[in-house]
Amino acid sequence: MPLRRSTALVKWLFENQHKFQIGRACSSSLRYKEQEEAEPAAAPAKPRPDLTPDLSFRFEDLQVKLAAPYQLQPKPEAQDLGFGKFFTDHMLKVHYHQHLGGWQKPEIIPLENLSIHPAAKALHYAIQLFEGMKAYRGIDDKIRLFRPDLNMERMNLSAQRSGLPQFDGAELIKCIARLVQIDQEWVPHSESSTMYIRPTFIGMEPTFGVMAPDSALLFVILSPVSVYYKSDDDSGVSMYADPSVVRAFPGGAGNRKVGSNYGPTIEVTAKAAKLGYHQVLWLFGPDHELTEVGAMNIFMVYVNEQGEKTLATPPLNGLILPGVTRRSVLELASQWEDITVAEEVITMDRVIQLNKSGRLLEMFGAGTAVGISPIGKIGFMEKEIHIPTTKQQQPVFQRVKDTLLAIQYGHVEHPFATVIS
């Protein structure tokens, strides 16, 4: 070939190299290539049989890898527990990858740190949600969950609002039950302590687009815990009500258990602590409507105009988390003939008026983490309102608390409790 033509060809190849698909070859890829040429053509690829339907993962696909002896952690003493300071030896993980067909097989593995891309949507846009459940060791040494179906229902609603895929709650309950069985020795042998269960769901796709992620991770970790609030006396917990801040607003996500509802409360909670209060009583609107108290639903016991003892809580109007404990208190108390149960708007003016007239008997918070917590004092508009919750002869809060604990620890058989071992 003449030199001029050869030079022109090299120049053309150089200028048009971007149009060619060039692949790198290595010894392993060449070996596979030779193997493919020696074998007959394979049939068209079929869907992977080990993938579960996009709708949900399945308990029957659960894979378990137990921790090695050197990975096991020493169990803390009951008096050292606190809340969420210690974690058990194993965790549950379920990946979701849209390009792999959706939900993957659930797995129980030794507790480990997560590997997450710095651009993951959970880190930038709060595409993250969680649940709070507990496992109770009963007087018969059996371990029980308390109404886990309601947690699953709420978790799926939070997932829907966050653009995360939904799942079959019954399948997750079975996976969680297996996780608790594996780490059952971490469930305290005490009725003053429990095992807190934290299912968490996060968006993992590493892109900056504000849209539903195509990959996600659902995981569950366990933590033995004791009481959430420690009051210095028996007068109950104290609350700080600041009308200038709100926890949620109409049309928002205050009724979903998403992390973005909790982080922004830290500053106000810290302010309340500096002023000597345990938590914040969240108000809304010009009438200062009571919504939640800390991370709890709030209840009030008062004597109504007909002289009846009434147990009231704010209605689920989109500003309030539909608590499992809240619902259980309402359902249980509605069966008591000596108490009228009501879901009604409660304002600070109403609280003050009832208190001045001597008709306000009790206020208490209710939640999975805190249980039933009597409220003894509210700081509002530079005044302190003292609530005689713990001074009642037969307080409703104590009756509610005892009823729930009897169910949770197996003193009575009840459909609210699910025995798992």
What would you report as the Rg, rounded to the nearest angstrom? 28 Å
The helix/strand class is: alpha+beta
Number of domains: 2
| Biggest beta sheet attributes | 10 strands, mixed
CATH homologous group name of the largest domain: D-amino Acid Aminotransferase, subunit A, domain 2
Plain-language structure description:
This protein has 421 residues and is an alpha+beta fold. The protein folds into 2 domains: 167 residues, Aminotransferase class 4, branched-chain amino acid transferase, N-terminal domain (D-amino Acid Aminotransferase, Chain A, domain 1); 172 residues, D-amino Acid Aminotransferase, Chain A, domain 2 (Alpha-Beta Barrel), CATH 3.20.10.10. The protein is built from 9 helices and 19 strands. Strands 1, 2, 3, 4, 5, 6, 7, 8, 9 and 19 form a 10-stranded mixed β-sheet that branches. A 6-stranded mixed beta barrel has the order 10-11-12-13-16-17, surrounded by 4 helices. Strand 11 and strand 12 form a beta hairpin. Helix 4 crosses helix 5. About 9% of the residues have low confidence.
Short description:
This protein has 421 residues and is of the alpha+beta class.
Break the fold down into its secondary structure elements and pairings:
Blueprint: H1 3-15, H2 27-38, E1 63-64, E2 90-97, E3 102-103, E4 107-110, H3 121-124, E5 128-130, E6 133-137, E7 143-146, H4 148-162, H5 169-182, E8 194-203, E9 215-225, E10 237-241, H6 266-274, E11 279-284, E12 289-293, E13 296-303, E14 309-313, H7 324-333, E15 340-343, H8 348-356, E16 360-367, E17 371-380, E18 383-386, H9 396-408, E19 417-419
Parallel strand pairs: 1-4, 10-11, 10-17, 14-15
Antiparallel strand pairs: 2-3, 2-4, 2-9, 5-8, 6-7, 6-8, 7-19, 8-9, 11-12, 12-13, 13-14, 13-16, 16-17, 17-18
Helix pairs in contact: 4-5
